[in-house]
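Bench notes, afternoon.
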Amino acid sequence: MLKITQKKGLVGAKQNQKETMRTLGLRKIHQSVVRQDDSATRGMIRTVAHLVTVEEVD
């Protein structure tokens, strides 16, 4: 499992990055979600890596 936390806002971000953040379930700065560690989630994280931090949780 991965804990994904939004660290920066989406002002000035590209549309695909905004959509990826919404798909991950992130809407506000400092909001966190826990997602399965799979290739789809890793791909979304790669798209918005500069906007989020990622931690592994059990």
